């Protein structure tokens, strides 16, 4: 077991820092995402909350009631009101819709040509259409009361409008929608692909580089350990690193999202991520078989960023261009993300819905074998060249 | 400046494959990934009419379909309920409206398009309630022809455009990428101090006994790395704007100027870092790359909103971060009509560069080695 032991002497000494850095970055990013994520409840329909900032220049009862109404139905965002801050906030989508109620709005409201409320938004965005609908809805109702009962006070009108607005159309769901935790887990496991490749290449790949060093290799080949046992020990070492990393990252979401593991879809995510771990291990084996000490960093960067960028780990797969989706067939990570998304979308479990999941997992395994086989061929050829 | 040293510095940069990868190829690769992954990102934001199916064999409330048509918000399909279910399962439509007993919207999940449909239907239900309430409260209005004169779908809003240029937020990723490209010249700057300080490398020991003045040699090397990095920045800009078709606006000269100043500041940052620290070259390289990456992270290279958050919550951090100054300068060029903010960023960036340069020269000058 000398090789295995040597392996375990190298890993903590050289790679604990790498491991910690990656884990910290990953946890930080995940925390950021789950913090900034829009909240959706599980069964009931929830209106989307557009981020709206109201700048009220009028301060009349009508304007204040309107502001309160908008803030109640949207997600209010406070921004500084100088022009540059407003423009910046809009550009970075900190707020999606800025409403400026002009001075004298209430006074002109009952006239035939009321003052318009200025809105600023990303041109022709969905959220701006939505926010405008909400504002017009309130004001149309208020205007009706205004015209019918000119003597009515604004407070009373507001009360009546709010009463009317509480009338709602019925909404029902075709199937039960995917729950929030499943959506969160889906995002988490998609993102995991990047971190697993990057981490496994930089850890497994580098350890293998040490063992692949010509001098060390020559020394090891003349040791009284059969080449078979030697390879087996290395393999066991790599596999155990991979499994430890996998266990840690599979355990993490249950802390972050305080979820339980007993749901079927959760188990499927976990299983799929295990297949991914095997796949990444094979990829790092493959990379280590030809990389050199100097080139491993660039190669690891290109592989991890490239495969996961093109697979839709960061951006939803549905948003990728059509060419990229076609190219994705040649990208093992694309299949991994695809399986994850299928699991996330799963509403009924039966043979036909599970079929694409199994298929995707098989494709990933096939890729793993392919990478491993190429790596072994290269290693064998290099051995002869020694 | 010694042209001889300048020439050989350029040659050695071109032949150093690791430098070539990080300083030239990596930004191009990253830009390609951005383009592939983020290309369609903006299309999700633009408004597309909401696809709604209406069950054809059920009576819809009077005026509802006309109002939906008029609103320009929906594409309406008339179909049977079974077919509508199928369309919804395949995500072809956002939802369908049925009217057994009362008005009902059937959807798959919550979302903004669903919300638009819901609010529209709500509106219909509510206005009817309001009208009924108004008439109940004041029945005489009916005789006065009140209902004929009212507008139920009046718009009270006027849209104001934020700027006349477009608002594609994705360009900020490319701006941060350009900032990264400029600042990666820190590698070369750091390397230059390693080969000029005789106690850090044997090459430096050789250079120190040469009859060329140290400052002269150093400035030549620095000039070489700025030139090299500026060329690779131009290659990156050309690649992003011409091949990836990302629109940076037409102020190409100003973009060039801020990138040149960025390369200067980046190189000087590396030089300063190399001059004041005494690590092994590999450790220095690693630290330089991590610090640069950290700066770029804060300017929005990985998560765009970080730039905004830093700017709002910790503006000082934004003003001393060269990556953010470059990104912000480019952003100001792209988004604002005036040059104020651009010039402000450019000046700060230049000042930072000069500070780094001064510190480096003060550390390096008159260093003599009695023995190494």
UniProtKB/TrEMBL annotation, chain A:
GO terms for molecular function: ABC-type transporter activity. It is a multi-pass membrane protein. Keywords: Cell membrane, Membrane, Transmembrane, Transmembrane helix. GO terms for cellular component: plasma membrane. It comes from the Bacteria. Its main location: membrane. It is found in: Cell membrane. InterPro entries: ABC-2_transporter_component. The keyword Glycoprotein does not apply. The chain crosses the membrane at residues 15-35, 191-211, 232-257, 269-290, 302-320, 357-379. Signal peptide: none annotated. This is ABC transporter permease.
Automatic annotation (TrEMBL), chain B:
The chain crosses the membrane at residues 20-38, 171-196, 217-240, 252-275, 287-310, 342-364. Keywords: Membrane, Transmembrane, Transmembrane helix. The keyword NADP does not apply. It is found in: Membrane. It is a multi-pass membrane protein. Residues 20-361 form the ABC-2 type transporter transmembrane domain. One of its GO terms (cellular component) is membrane. One of its GO terms (molecular function) is ABC-type transporter activity. This is ABC transporter permease.
